Amino acid sequence: MAMRVQNYNFKLVNIECLPTSVNFNVLVKLDTDIEDLLPYIAARLPGCTYIHGSKVVNYQQKYHIITFRPRELTITRVKGKDEARHICKSYVDFINDTERLRPEIEPVYMKKVEIGPLDVFKLLPGTNCGECGYPTCLAFAARVVKSEASVRRCVPLFTDGNPDAIHALVLMLHKAGISTEEEFPEEGKNNGVMCHG
Question: Do 99 and 34 share a structural domain?
């Protein structure tokens, strides 16, 4: 059987919310659409998040968050081109392997983790500064959990916050299927390095 993904290219981009970070995010462009494969990918990834129709599978591998979309992958916290090349190849191989195994896989159409306001609150700075538009961090956390506010509205978290706490919070929200807005700068906002697979 032919491989689903024949070619891909990737670009390293700076982590917009952590400008002093030595790590990069990776944006991988695929040469074909894999939307119909997402339920099968979700079935093979323990602990991932997938809601059919969202066109997004989120998964954590060690300290990376990997997001599968119909024509791209995004991978967080990569140290450089060598690590990016290796991890991109491994996930493209995984996609192609999923295509090969597809007849044997029972697709999954819903996978997510439930979280509450206190889970989010514990990772916020706890300043009750109101910059997010809510009177307390707990009130803000309740809105984030209901997808009524973006966690990125917490100014102290993303300006003075601990990178590990930010990563843990973003990962937890992804696992619960809660958007943290776009993780990558818009096209043209960075001078990322483009590489080919």
Answer: yes
